What we know:
Number of domains: 1
Number of helices: 2
Amino acid sequence: MDIAADFFAEFDDHDEKHRNLLATLEKHVPEVRFQLVAEHGPALGEELNISAEICSQLVDKAKREKKLSQMELTGEQIVYALSILELNAVLL
Length: 92
């Protein structure tokens, strides 16, 4: 039994689930841009036009509240964040 391989396989599985979620969302709601911010690793999906500070605030709020959170930005732009516990990630 290769402990290291088992350990890294779990990360690969999460990455695949993250990509599958984004692909499904993009297929069904193509006019909306999505980004998935995982606990570990880089964000996946489209680059959103928000600062790293705003992104961090939204992610923290979604994790804390465990429900759909939102933040209104300049120009009446609204960004939503949803914590997805099963994926240990936040969807923006």
